[in-house]
Specification:
- The chain has about 250 residues and is α/β, with parallel strands linked by helices.
- The chain is built from 6 helices and 11 strands.
- Strands 1-3-5-6-7-8-9-10-11 form a 9-stranded parallel β-sheet, covered by helices on one side.
- Strand 5, helix 2 and strand 6 form a beta-alpha-beta unit.
- It starts with 9 loop residues before the first helix and ends with a strand.
- InterPro entries: FBL13/AtMIF1-like (IPR050232), LRR_dom_sf (IPR032675).
Amino acid sequence: MAVKFPHNGEIQLEAIINASPLLNTLTLSYVDTRSEAFPGWVIGGANLRSLTIVSNDNHGWQVAELPNLHEGTINLEYCDNFSDFGGLLAGLAQARKLTLNKCYPSFTEDHILETLACTFDNLKSLTLWTHFEEMPTILSTFCMLRNAPNLEELDIMIDVFSDEENEANGEFQNAEWTDGMCPNLQVVRLTGVLCSSNEMCFIQLLLSKATVLRIMSINLGYGSLKSSEDALRELITYRRASPHAQIFFDGK
């Protein structure tokens, strides 16, 4: 159902949500409240179990504490005017399953997601649409992993390729991996892998650090820098911290 709100309609929308105490699923898809300012309106709900936000713009939403949230999806793929992404994530801290399409608010140094004020202690499954070609995205990815101590499943969808790769070699990425990181990680799925040096370093790092890893699934993307044979030949040389780790490889 399509609903149009009047100018500054976010106040009405907030009131509707607050007046629905039994609401357990909320999807805000391309909501336009016709507001030029970002006054800040709060999404809350003591019984909300699923929250989805899809937007190309910043409409001033803030997320209150959602104590019963099971699943959250944030898709800001084309949103370039949202700077407090960490603040938005803090409202999803109770989620068990989280999907983030664009876990980096912009490519500027001022908005790199290096630290979070919350820890996702309940998070078991994380899906990130990201890439390893620019420093903000790399640091944001490691930041999310550091703050999900009980993560069991990780899906990474490679969504961008740039010819101007910022070098983030094994030494750099190893420094980002803190002690005790991802101790429960069992399943990793990487889709659209282009075999850039940064990507391969990340894969090698995961294999060498994830001590209870059971499955790593790798799917090559179009435009891969390596042939299927060369990529597989390199992958099988990587040391595995888990004796039970298996690699499932889907070439071009």
